Amino acid sequence: MAGGGTLGAGRERAKRGKPSKRKKKKRVGFVLDMTPLVDIAFLLLTFFMFTTTMTTPQIMQMFIPPDPTDVEVKMSELFTLRVRGDDKVFYNPGIDEPQLVLLKDLKKMMVEANIKLKNRLITVLKVDDNASYDVVIKVLDELNLAEADITPALLKDFNLPRERRFTIAPMTEKDLEEIKPL
Fold first, then answer.
1. Sequence-distant (≥ 6) Cβ neighbours of residue 155 within 8 angstroms
2. pTM score, two decimals?
3. For the chain, which terminus, N or C, has the lower number of CB atoms within 10 Å?
4. Is position 32 within any domain?
């Protein structure tokens, strides 16, 4: 039988017509050496840990008088904010009668009062024990937002640097009586 015929089972035909005598190699699994990858990952991790700066805690500087004596303040430079137990906020400049104020109007009032008194305004916050924490935080946020408008206005109009004067005082019985009927 020349030039033809069948090959045996399992044999493959070679390129030139000769039967292949080589066995098909089994594929060996792919091996990746992870050591250099882990080394680089830890080097990058330590590099970024040592070179980044952590955020510093923000603090508000407070000055406390050395002795517990009363501090004399001009009533015309005083702006009192009171938060009642039912979460209503009242204000009074100087010795005026307390009036109800909405939180959205508080920022505008603080800006106007500070500019009018040319940075001599002292803000006093008095909070009732029954007032919710949320309202107190909102009042403080409005006061902080007002600072963004007060500082440039003082520099532009009067060339004065901003000196913030703020205190938190205890709510007295007299304060509660003043705002109770409102």
1. 161, 162
2. 0.60
3. N
4. no
